[in-house]
TrEMBL record:
CDD domains linked to this entry: TM_PBP2
Membrane-crossing residue ranges in chain numbering: 38-62, 93-118, 125-150, 170-190, 282-304
Protein family according to the UniProt entry: Belongs to the binding-protein-dependent transport system permease family.
Name of the protein: Sugar ABC transporter permease
Entry-linked InterPro entries: ABC_transporter_permease, MetI-like, MetI-like_sf
Taxonomic superkingdom: Bacteria
Gene3D superfamilies named in the record: MetI-like
UniProt-annotated location(s): Cell membrane
Signal peptide extent: none
Topology relative to the membrane: Multi-pass membrane protein
Annotated region (Disordered), positions in chain: 1-29
Length: 319
């Protein structure tokens, strides 16, 4: 049979064969995929500071322990108490409400700021750098700062609050205290999510916007038809981090409200702290902590499952 291949096809075949030989040679000489040895430091670190404490918490959730004497196994007593405890149900509801408020507050603003900050203009770079400053501060410092600003007797809120119709004792009201905690958390971590959206926006091929402009699409149409679909996986990543972070708020509540007024801001992490380190019931506190980890993990997996993020389909197919 006569070979009718063109010179170009023969050249491509020889190049492909050479590439395969090079890959086999590199793999044979140890230049292929890194071995698991490179991951050992990370695995050991994660196991020592994450898996081991988590396993201890699960074990202690089946024990009675005051932190001083030896833990005493009590079977399912802590878990039975957990599901019957009205205080835990209230704390769970407040944690869920705080998570929803935080997500609804942070996501639209962080998305718009991230898209805006993805521009190449010099003024945007300067303003973006200033906006990211809260991310560099510790949560404790920010909570102390806002607690001072919102002090009804000596804080700035006493002077400017009435101008905007805000009660100076905003931390003394149940709704105001919860919204304030959500605002303070959003003020600190919104720059982080803005940075995520900025990076995702800059990965969108500009040819899509150029083609849309030729077709007569304006900025708003381009945002909803190009930017949002291309940022689907980015939104999922940001939302998972935001939800897990909101479920684990602690230091902001501890410093600003101490779970008050009453128990109106006693979310699950603060209830865990109060049970373990004020009531010295560390066995029940471990059950609360384990339940919180299970819920946060389940919510994250559900978001990844139903958003299609787990399939990792490329949004740039055909580019």
């Amino acid at each position: 049979m006569t070979d009718v291949s063109t010179p170009l096809e023969k050249q491509r075949s020889r190049a492909a064969a050479a590439t395969k030989r090079g890959r086999r040679t590199a793999a044979g000489q140890g230049f292929g995929r890194p071995s698991v040895t490179w991951a050992l430091p990370g695995i050991l670190f994660f196991g020592l500071f994450a898996i081991v404490p988590m396993a201890l918490a699960v074990y202690l959730s089946f024990c009675s322990w005051d932190g001083l004497t030896s833990p005493t196994p009590v079977g399912l007593d802590n878990w039975t108490r957990l599901f019957k405890d009205p205080e835990f149900r209230q704390a769970g509801w407040l944690s869920l409400l705080l998570t929803v408020i935080s997500w609804a507050f942070q996501t639209p603003i962080a998305l718009m700021l991230g898209v805006w900050a993805a521009g190449r203009q010099r003024n945007r770079a300067v303003l973006s750098a200033i906006f990211f400053v809260p991310l560099l501060l510790s949560t404790t410092a920010i909570a102390v700062l806002f607690h001072s600003l919102l002090d009804p007797n000596f804080g700035v809120i006493k002077e400017i609050g009435p101008w905007f119709g805000i009660d100076p004792n905003i931390l003394g009201s149940s709704t105001g205290a919860l919204l304030t905690v959500a605002f303070v958390g959003g003020w600190q971590f919104m720059p982080f999510h803005t940075l995520i959206y900025q990076g995702g926006t800059r990965q969108i091929p500009q040819v899509l916007y150029q083609a849309a402009s030729i077709d007569g699409a304006g900025p708003v149409r381009q945002f909803f038809s190009i930017t949002l679909p291309q940022l689907r996986n980015t939104i999922t990543t940001s939302s998972v981090l935001m939800i897990v972070g909101s479920l684990t708020y602690f230091d902001t509540v501890l410093i600003m409200t101490k779970g008050g007024p009453g128990t109106d801001t006693t979310i699950v992490p603060y209830l865990m702290y109060r049970t373990g380190f004020q009531s010295y019931d560390l066995g029940y506190a471990s059950a609360i902590a384990t339940a919180l980890v299970v819920v946060a993990t389940a919510l994250s997996l559900l978001m990844v499952k139903f958003s299609g993020f787990g399939s990792m389909r490329s949004t740039r197919e055909g580019m």
